[in-house]
Amino acid sequence: MCKPTNDADALNRIFITSQVEILNSLEDERIKDVQYNGEYLIEEGNKIWIGVSRADGSKCDRCWNYSPQVGSFAEHPLLCGRCHNVVIGLPTRDPEDLAKVTQSEAKEAITQ
Questions:
Q1: The pLDDT of residue 66
Q2: Pick from 70, 76, 72, 74: which is nearest to 58 by CA?
Q3: What pLDDT does 1 receive?
Q4: Distance CA 70, CA 58 (A)
Q5: Can you give the chain as a three-state secondary structure string?
Q6: Terminal Cα distance for the chain, rounded
Q7: Out of 2, 17, 77, 79, which could bridge 84 as a Cys pair, Cβ 3.0 to 4.6 Å?
C-alpha cells in the first residue's frame, strides 16, 4: 500500500493539486465535510475512497499553490515554504544590472 509521507508528495504533483493526504482508514469525523467523494472497487475486492476538498492555507503569490506556510516568513509573507527557499537562494542584483543580463546569463543562473 502507499506510504503516506512519500506518496502524498508525489501525488500532489501528479494531480497538480496543493495538498494530498493518504489515510490508513476512514474516520467519519474527517470525511463528513468532504463535498466530493466516492468509494471505488479496485483489484482483488479492495476498495479505495477518494475525497476532494479545499486545501488548507492561503494562496502563494509565486506558485499559486495553497499552503499553511503562506504568511510565515516576515521577509516574504506572501510565499509558501518552497517558494521562500527558492527566492532567498536567488542572488540579489541591482534592478539596472538585471536589465543588462543576457539570455545565456539568465539560463546559467537558473541552473545553478
A1: 93
A2: 70
A3: 47
A4: 6
A5: CCCHHHHHHHHHHHCCCCCCCCCCCCCHHHHCCCCEEEEEECHHHCEEEEEECCCCCEECCCCCCEECCCCCCCCCCCCCHHHHHHHHHCCCCCHHHHHCCCHHHHHHHHHC
A6: 37
A7: 79
Backbone angles phi, psi at 34, to 5 degrees: -80, 115
Which residue would you say has higher pLDDT here, 17 or 66? Answer: 66
Q: What was the pLDDT predicted at 103?
A: 64
Q: Which three cell numbers stand for residue 75?
A: 521577509
Grid coordinates representing 10 are 508525489
In this structure, is the dihedral angle defined by the CA atoms of residues 32, 70, 61 and 11, taken in order, positive or negative? negative
What average pLDDT is seen over the chain? 79
